[in-house]
Amino acid sequence: MSAGRILVIDDDPQIRRTMRTTLTAHGYEVGDARTGEEGLEKLRSEAYDLVLLDVNMHGMGGLETCRLIRSSSDIAIIMLTVSNSERDKVDALDAGADDYVTKPFSTPELLARIRATLRRLPHPPDHADLKQLDLRGVGIDLPSRQVSVRGRSSRLTAKEFDLLSYLLARPNKTITHRELLQAVWGPDYGDELEYLRVFINRLRKKIEPDPSKPQFLVTDAWAGYRFQLPQ
Amino acid sequence: MLALFLRASSGGSKPIDFGMYIRQAIRLSGRIIAALGLVAAITFFFSRIAHINETTAGFVYLVAILLIATAGGLIESTIASVVALLCFNYFFLPPIGTFTVADPRNWVALFAFLATSLISSQLSARAKRRTKDAIDRQNEIERLYSLSRALLLRGTERPIAKQIVQQIAQAFEFRAVALYERSSGEIYRAGFDDMPEIDNELKETVVRSELLQDENKGLIITPVRLGRQPIGSLAIRGASLSDAALQSLLNLVAIWLERALTEEAVNRAEVARRSEELKSTLLDAIAHEFKTPLTSIKAVTTDLLSEPASQLAVHQRELISIADEGADRLSTLVTEAIQLARIEGGKFQLNRGVHLPSSLIFGALKQMKSLTDGRAINLSIVDDLPPVWVDAELIRMVIAHLIDNALKYSPPAAPILIGARGAEKSVIIYVSDQGSGITEEEKARIFDKFYRGTKETHLRGTGMGLAIAREIIRAHGEEIWVTSKLGQGSEFSFSLPLASRGAGA
After folding, report:
1. Residues of chain A by 3-state class (helix, strand, coil), percent to 5
2. Among candidates A225, A216, A222, which has minimal Cα distance to A183?
3. Per-residue pLDDT for chain A (231 aa), expressed as one digit of tens each?
4. From the list B292, B298, B393, which residue is nearest A85 (CB)?
5. Domain residue ranges of chain A, discontinuous segments joined by +
6. Hey, is the C-beta of B298 within 8 angstroms of any chain A C-beta?
7. pLDDT by residue (tens digit) across B452-496?
8. What global pTM score does this model have?
9. How far does B383 lie from chain A, in Å, by closest CA?
10. Taking the mean position of all CA atoms in its chain, how far away is CA B502?
11. Contact criterion met (CB below 8 Å) for B476 and B397
């Protein structure tokens, strides 16, 4: 049984060849695409667990491809960037990616990122009373990963879902950045505050009636985040 | 020889000026003869043909003098007055035919006649002069106007200073115009005469900042000032300009010269900006082109090296390690070359925020995990340091470069100390090693691009790290420095501005 199905979208043939060889050797099934358009096409016709997406591609760029994938799918996405600058990383996460890796990367690092991204919360919340919530017009249905705010519903990506579930299972309690990162992304993480910033923002856009004035997903400055249950 | 020629050529222009005076003198004597002719005709007509009494004769003469004064000038009418007086006395005042005056009352008439004719000549001449002045002023204003219009509608050819002189020569019909532009040191000329002999005078006029006038040659050399600052000088030959017109002309030249300089500066800045943009695009393309094959190499080598030890023969592992390190080095080179080019281009913008010194140090250490593994790193961060106002990404880069430097230039067993302490109005972060130290001579050059320690045989660095660090710290308005003792080690320190200071700015 394979560890997962990965689609590599990169316009460089050498990279596609390298990725196919190494990832296959490590137990993944690999498909590839030369352009964003071709990648979108493959995602429609074949089932994948994760997309490795190059940012700098001719034609439709990686960021645009990422947004388009995200608009119809909650598949895991890791972006491959050349630039190491913080803005480019945040851009990638903002476009809907779950993680990014800077080129050139080492294969063990990439494999670790893939594992972290495909990783699910080891103990999903099973409190019956938290599975379906209706909070002042905000509906959260954990089993189907559906949320709805004032009748407008959207689906959470796996990582968003894990993050929300983790906070929701410990309501009204501040969870530190480190604890959140290690619980959701894995034990190798802990300092990547920008991940949390971007993911919490993405969640707020999906579940908060007014994302600029969050009432559920509250930031505790310098400490962490908490899920505030209305009294 | 050349001087002789120059003198000859400048002398050669004199007869032309002289000729102008002769023509003027001829015209003047013509008018005098005509005036005298009129007086003679009146005398002849009224003494020989139509006899009239002396009173009437006096009035007729006065009318004639007024006519002469109106048509001619002061000289003609004065001469005509005196001649008319003599004729009046000789032909009309008894005893006729002599210059004697019998009746003392006629002396009064004679003097009244002289006074009237002289005063009317004066008045008339003054009125004429004023009219002429008014017409001259009007001409000057028209020329100044046409000059400023021509300058406004000027073409796009450069330099603008050249167009300015051509337009001046054309509008005022000067024989020669030369404009010295101080900032460029260029002299621009227009007109029939190149005036090559006045270069030094033009330059001296700017320095002395006073007007130079040579009546003989009809030459004016005057400084051009903007405010009180002399920005050039202007030489004009063949000019008869009023002071006011000259001043207006100079103001016009000053404004246009200044405008030209500003425009050229703006143009240069635009060209620089475009070339910076091109450079940046090019660098991005290069970064991408280099890093793509590096990514393949790196993915392969790291994958092979992660295999269990039994899978590879020792020499195979060694060879793959060499390829892996080569790829790392190439990647660092490309990254640093691009960083340096960006930072040196001055185009990067500081993305400042409030950060704790400790988080900057930990952030940098995290980035360098792979390099610091197995090395002893000691930290000495003073508690409760105030936050700083910096671009965290760039400062982490500086710390990383300093740590990298310390790792390279000290023995693997020697620990590295990274610390932070407060200072007056800043926080100082330092990285010290126990390497061989730096000589005084090297200290001066160590932050230069591509400089590497002279004693080093294992040239692992790119020679760009410290140059990048210095540029980043300078962009923050702060300092970076090194202290060192030979044989004991070096300490690199830099200061960072406090957040409380930055927030007020």
Report:
1. 40, 25, 35
2. A225
3. 678 999 999 999 999 999 999 999 999 999 999 999 999 999 999 999 999 999 988 888 899 999 999 888 889 999 998 877 778 888 898 898 998 998 889 999 999 999 988 887 665 555 545 566 777 777 877 777 778 877 777 888 888 888 988 888 888 899 999 999 998 888 888 777 888 888 999 889 888 888 888 888 999 887 889 988 876
4. B393
5. 4-118, 128-227
6. yes
7. 665 554 455 667 888 889 989 988 889 999 998 888 889 999 999
8. 0.58
9. 17
10. 35
11. no
How, if at all, do strands A50-54 and B353-355 pair? unpaired
Nearest-Cα distance to chain B for A69, in Å, is: 24
- CB B380 within 8 Å of CB B417: yes
Of A89, A50, A81, the closest CA to residue A198 belongs to: A89
Task: Collect all residues of chain B within an 8 Å Cβ-Cβ radius of residue A17.
Answer: 296
Q: How far apart are CA A63 and CA B358, in angstroms?
A: 33
CATH number of A128-227: 1.10.10.10
Cβ of B297 and A104 within 8 Å? yes
Q: In the structure encoding, which two tokens stand for residue B489, read together? A: 């080690």
> What residues of chain A lie within 8 A of the CB of B356, using their CB?
none
Give me the torsion for CA of A38, A41, A42, A45, rounded to 10°: -160
CB contacts of A107 in chain B (<8 Å) are: 299-300, 302-303, 306
Return the H-helix or E-strand segment holding B427: strand B426-432
Looking at the DSSP assignment, which residues form a beta bridge with residue B222? B234
List the 330-359 stretch of B: residues with Cβ below 8 A of A. 331, 335, 351
Which of B342, B309, B289 is closest to B471 using CA atoms? B342
Q: Which residues of A touch B (CB under 8 A)?
A: 12, 14-15, 17-19, 22, 25, 56, 80, 82-87, 103-110, 191
Query: Hey, what CATH topology would domain A4-118 get?
Result: Rossmann fold (3.40.50)
CA atoms within 13 A on the CB side of B468: 26
B213: which strand partners?
Answer: B220
User: How far is Cα B361 from Cα B352, in angstroms, rounded to an integer?
Assistant: 16
Q: What is the 3 state secondary structure string of B166-182?
A: HHHHHHHCCCEEEEEEC
Torsion B144-B145-B148-B153 (CA) sign: negative
Q: 3-class DSSP state for residue A219?
A: strand
| CB contact set of B112 (below 8 Å; sequence gap of 6+) | none
Residue B481's contacts (CB-CB under 8 Å, 6 or more residues apart) are B492, B493, B494
Interchain pair A104, B299: CB under 8 A: yes
Q: B292, B297, B330, B332: best mutation site toward chain A, by most A Cβ within 10 Å?
A: B292
* Phi then psi dihedrals of residue A12, to 5 deg: -95, 120
Rounded to the nearest 5 percent, the helix, strand and coil shares of chain B are: 60, 15, 25
CA distance to partner chain B, nearest, from residue A125 (Å): 32
- How far apart, in Å, are the Cα atoms of A53 and each of A81, A101, A195, B258, B262? 9, 10, 18, 55, 49
Structure tokens at B379: 């930290």
| Residue in chain B nearest A24 by alpha carbon | B303
Do the Cβ atoms of B391 and B351 come closer than 8 Å?
yes
